[in-house]
Amino acid sequence: MLLLNRFGRVTLVVIALLIAFAIVLVAQGSAIASSLPSTLESLWPGSSTTTRPPPTENANTAPNTDADADADADAGAGAGAGAGAEDDDDIDTERKDISYDLTIPVSTGCENLVNDLQQRLIHAYSERLRGVRYANIWGYLETENKGDAAIWSAQQILLTMLGIETMEACRFMDKDCDIKKFRARLEAHKPHSAIIMAGGGNFNDYYWEDQPSRMKMISNFTDVPVRAFPQSVYMTNPERIEATKKAFTKHKDLQLAARDRPSYEWLDEAFGEVEGIEADLVPDIAFMWGNRSDFRVNTKKTHDILILARKDKEISSGDSSDIEFGEGELDLGGSVGKVTYEKIDWKFTETPGIDGEKKEKGKNQRAWAKSVTGFEHLGSARFVITDRLHGHIMSTLIGAPHVLMDSKLGKNLNFHNTWTRDCECTRIASNISEALDVARLWFEQPENQD
Prior knowledge:
Blueprint: H1 2-35, H2 39-43, H3 69-76, H4 111-128, E1 134-138, H5 146-161, E2 165-170, H6 179-188, E3 193-197, E4 200-204, H7 210-220, E5 226-228, E6 231-234, H8 238-248, E7 254-258, H9 261-271, E8 277-281, H10 293-298, E9 303-308, E10 326-331, E11 338-344, H11 363-379, E12 381-386, H12 389-398, E13 402-404, H13 411-420, E14 426-428, H14 432-443
Parallel strand pairs: 1-2, 1-3, 3-5, 4-6, 7-8, 9-11, 9-12, 12-13, 13-14
Antiparallel strand pairs: 10-11
Helix pairs in contact: 5-11, 5-12, 7-8, 11-12
Pfam families: PS_pyruv_trans (PF04230)
Protein name: Polysaccharide pyruvyl transferase domain-containing protein
InterPro entries: Polysacch_pyruvyl_Trfase
């Protein structure tokens, strides 16, 4: 009897301990769960993330003030942006607008924003390219422009991720293109084939070279689904706008994509009511490179400042003609004094190792080599100043502290104001003098002094 009493008391103690232990586990589990971010919230459009939504103002419009936030939210309600953009009801209208604050030193890194924009692209094109297994690319561009190369390589990264094989690539129907082969490859893989128009900034009537070619292709391939990687749109000529509408409306399975809010609004106004044509608002395809901070961290520093400057007729607020191309010194004044610089336009810098006796012929291989050279240029300096859009985008990908100035067509600030205005490694300057002031503020910080 005594043994039973002892056993009973031990049993009751054990049960009490187990109950107490269970209560502690439940309490700790709730606390941990409440402190963790939702995976979906951090990855997908329409969620509450650290990335701010695209604004509605144009490139030359000042950023929203706090007092304007509610008004902007009301004005944007109901303006859908296709498969590649969030519903306006889900947009968080609060912005930091850190890149417009020139009183705060620029920092390094922008990983959360880069991750978010990459996931937006994956999400959008997983939907838009559903069912496509084979694709011909329209708009292949072979130049030394490292931004164009980064676009091409990023497109291939995404297509590979989605299990889509690239077959043929052309830019013009009547030049350097076997159009019969182009069509035959598409026919051979129906209904799982499509034409995808390359991304970039040539959807415009300023140069009027790629746009007529794009119009001609769409008019001649009305029996093939046509999709698009994101473009900047700049159309001002009424006759050319009308010609574009006439060509595009012939197609009944056409998807267009804009990489900034003003471009999307133009597409929506031009084609929003046209059956068979849809438009998306998505980030530049180069964000498929993802975070590449390795180029910032591992590339040997050869200069204090890299000035990546346009050398063409699109020069505008980024005019740095008073500074010579090549290497030299700049006096930033203040406590910083003289710094070393290199000034280039990477459209005219050669990529090592792909030409010469053993010329690399592969499109993907050439583009990849040029892209890497571009990343290495940006990573070779401690600070970057640029008026090239992909100077900004690729600096953001590697997290390099940099200043962006606009170009004549406004595409730099249109893109920035839509997607990257809250990136803390970026500042916006209206001219080269202001850009150098931002650089001086960065070099004045104790952690950035030699």
